[in-house]
Write a structure and sequence with these properties.
Elements: E1 13-18, H1 23-34, E2 44-48, H2 51-65, E3 73-76, H3 82-89, E4 92-97, H4 102-115, E5 119-122, H5 127-144, E6 147-149, H6 157-169, E7 172-185, H7 187-191, E8 199-200, H8 201-212, H9 214-224, E9 243-245, E10 248-252, H10 257-270, E11 277-284, H11 287-303, H12 307-315, H13 317-320, E12 325-326, H14 332-336, E13 338-350, E14 362-371, H15 373-392, E15 400-402, H16 404-408, H17 413-419, E16 423-426
Parallel strand pairs: 1-2, 1-4, 2-3, 4-5, 5-6, 6-15, 7-11, 8-12
Antiparallel strand pairs: 7-13, 9-10, 10-11, 13-14, 14-16
Helix pairs in contact: 1-2, 1-15, 3-4, 4-5, 5-9, 6-10
The chain binds NADP nicotinamide-adenine-dinucleotide phosphate.
NADP nicotinamide-adenine-dinucleotide phosphate binds near residues 24, 49 and 80.
């Protein structure tokens, strides 16, 4: 039987996973249930909007992992019911929010977390949500001494913490970083001709809403960044729509990473440091592929502008994504054969060089890699971000709505991720 206790009598758990019945939330629960060095001493609970679904999920995970989860606290909370959200938050030291799309469901959860003085992490990759939270809640979060940290998953830890990693290893002045991202299925696996849905429909929904957010972002950024950063020379230029790097073709990556890294660097600039300029690209398999992708993106962009067509696209993920996103999510076989590699090419100067008079004379390449970006790296990222808040707050800023780079640059997060298979290496 699961534990049901009245809120007033309960002490705070280390972690509560909200949205635990969803595809990503359940993977976080599975990881915690399997246990291991970092997880065995933790107290944790699960939360969602349906008691019945939560009980079933806990029973399923217990069966899958062979672990007794009868002591796990179950909390019912709905994003439409502020009281339930506050009661849930009041029972956690850190809330892991896996309930998305965040632009629809995230804000009341952030508000409740700040109210209850509970730290908050999530796996959002939605700039509109993240930047709105920073604009509206940063002051309140700082005042309450609460951390609100988004993009702790594959969006955007490899790039945001990757730039931090290069900065830590760099002796001298780092001027710019160009990131080259790649995700791929093991070659042997592709030959079996299995189904290749790689992501769940929750991410599809967030992505489609992301298309329709573009115009709102322009005005939001004017408010969020009223003071522009000075331009540093040499200025990093965005490369063309298609360019070659190490024999492969790359296109500009349209995800959240560039903006997350920008927020990290913007903050450090106003703390008196030289910011790192950043661009990010994604590997494309062929010219034809790029062309088809561009046509599909333009089509989805148009469809996402009006609610009727947007809902149609959201309700039929498999059809509109050519099978990449499905309502039942990818199989274990697929996600365990999916890999990622992110190469960050840093350019700048050796230590002691006059950066105004000397051309850049130093290059360093960092590689961030691993298996299962969507549900392996993402789960590790968000769990270890939460653990870092629990254990290393003394190395973090005092609170606020922060990026991972701003929050964790002085902690051991990179080391912890590396130990768990989310590799960070200097390769050149
Ligand atoms: N950064 C990354 O790389 C990364 C990777 C994976 C996922 N994500 C993001 O994570 C989010 C979740 O994705 P997913 O695939 O796990 O989605 P999902 O399977 O649809 O799960 C969504 C969860 O939210 C819950 N929920 C929905 N409305 C709610 C409400 N009103 N009150 C309380 N709970 C509610 C659902 O509960 P029910 O079960 O009761 O419906 C479910 O638990 C998405 O935004 C996705 O983009 C990011």
């Amino acid at each position: 039987m699961v534990e049901h206790v009245s809120v007033e009598t309960m002490s705070r758990l280390d972690l509560v996973i909200f949205g635990a019945t969803g595809f990503t939330g359940k993977k976080v629960v599975e990881k915690l249930a399997r246990g291991g060095e970092s997880y065995d001493t933790l107290s944790w609970g699960v939360a969602g909007r349906s008691q019945r679904k939560l009980e079933k999920m806990v029973a399923d995970v217990s069966k899958l992992t062979g672990k007794d989860l009868s002591h796990i606290r179950i909390l019912v909370a709905d994003t439409g019911d502020n009281k339930s959200l506050k009661q849930m938050c009041a029972q956690a030291k850190v809330l892991i929010n896996c309930c998305g799309p965040y632009r629809l469901y995230g804000e009341p959860v952030v508000r409740a977390a700040i109210d209850a003085k509970t730290h908050y992490v999530d796996v959002s990759g939605e700039p509109l949500f993240m930047e709105t939270m920073q604009l509206v809640y940063d002051g309140q979060a700082r005042e309450a001494g609460v951390y609100v940290i988004s993009a702790c998953g594959f969006d955007s830890i490899p790039n945001d913490m990757g730039v931090v990693f290069l900065q830590q290893k760099w002796e001298g002045t780092l001027n710019s970083v160009e990131s080259y991202m790649e995700t791929y299925l093991s070659p042997d696996f592709k030959n079996k001709g299995s189904k290749t849905s790689v992501l769940n429909s929750g991410t599809w929904e967030s992505l489609i809403y992301g298309f329709s957010d573009q115009l709102k972002l322009l005005s939001l950024r004017k408010q969020l960044f009223p003071e522009k950063m000075l331009k540093f020379e040499p200025e990093l230029q965005l490369r063309g729509p298609l360019h070659k790097h190490n024999k492969d073709w790359y296109v500009p990556f349209l995800g959240a990473d560039k903006f997350v890294v920008y927020r990290t660097q913007h903050r450090s600039y106003f703390d008196g440091e030289r910011p790192v300029q950043f661009e990010v690209y994604y590997k494309t398999r062929s010219l034809l592929n790029t062309l088809l992708f561009a046509i599909a993106a333009a089509f989805l962009f148009v469809m996402s502008m009006v609610s009727i067509t947007r809902n149609l696209v959201i309700n039929y993920p498999s059809f509109f994504s050519a099978g990449m996103f499905t309502k039942e999510g990818p199989s274990e076989e697929v996600i365990n054969n999916c890999h990622f590699r992110v190469e960050l090419v840093g350019k700048g100067w050796e230590k002691g060089v006059d950066t105004k008079r000397t051309p850049m004379n130093k290059t360093m390449v960092a590689r961030i890699s691993g298996v299962n970006p969507g549900y392996g790296a993402t789960v590790l990222g968000v769990l270890h971000s939460a653990l870092t808040i629990l254990w290393e707050q003394h190395k973090m800023p005092k609170g606020g709505v922060l990026t991972t780079g701003a929050a964790f640059s002085n902690t051991t997060l990179i080391e912890q991720l590396h130990k768990n298979g989310f590799k960070f290496e200097i390769v050149k």
